[in-house]
Amino acid sequence: MREVKIMSVLPIYALGGTWMIYALIFPMYRWLDFLIAAILSSVVYLVLWRIIPPKIVLVEEEPEPIRTGNAAHDAQLQQWQAYRHELDDLRKQIANIAIVAKLDSILQTSNHMFDLLKADASKFGLIRTFSTYYFPTTISLIKRYEDYEDNTSQGPNVKSAIHKIETAINTIETAFRDALDRLYQDETLDTDVEVEVMEQMLRKDGLGDVMGPIIRK
């Protein structure tokens, strides 16, 4: 989010109004009348422009274009980013604090996933169903949940649907965390290999007894 200053339109209206009022009072057939009207309207405009503060509004910053050099990868990332922004917008409409907390967790996890997916296109294969099913289905459920929350009657069917979605969101939050852990799979394997090689070299150099326990910690 960034702040944007929006100037008031009142000085512009006042400028035009000054010309109209002056024309109603004076004949406006001399060049001097036009000069006076121009000076008066400019003074009115500048005075109001200085005394009326601009309105400060917060606007959503446009995300930077994704360019990894791979068009297919860029499209996948853009779709993921679009899902993330849509879910974030929906989250702002939800009143249930517990569900909001769950959505915050999902969004935070999805951000970590996005960073990993951006760095390695092949990782999309590990969580393909998330970008094609789980993420859009989560958005669909939250849209329904928002509608149900706004339903003033909330009969038995609506209450049952609300409860089912709340239960599903708990499961979805866990699924996102598990998917994030899956994306780290290769890195954890590399870590295991590096530690194993390090321990072998330490033992070879006669340092294993001292350094080994430290590495394991």
Describe the structure.
The protein is mainly alpha-helical. 74% of the residues lie in helices and 5% in strands. It contains 8 helices and 2 strands; from the N terminus they run E-H-H-E-H-H-H-H-H-H. A two-stranded antiparallel sheet has the order 1-2. Helix 3 packs parallel to helix 5 (128-150). It is elongated and about 100 Å long. The chain starts with a strand and ends with a helix.
Question: Which strand order do you get reading across the main beta sheet?
Answer: 1-2
Total helical elements: 8
Strand content: under 5%
Span of the ends, CA to CA: 42 Å
Mean pLDDT: 82
Rg over alpha carbons: 31 Å
| Gross morphology | elongated
How many β strands by DSSP? 2
- Along the chain, the helix and strand elements come as EHHEHHHHHH
Coarse structural class: mainly alpha
Low-confidence stretches: none
List keywords for this structure.
217 residues; mainly alpha; two-stranded antiparallel ribbon; 2 strands; 5% strand
How are the SSEs ordered, and which strands pair?
Layout lengths: L1 E5 L3 H16 L5 H21 L3 E5 L11 H21 L5 H23 L8 H23 L5 H28 L1 H20 L3 H9 L1
Antiparallel strand pairs: 1-2
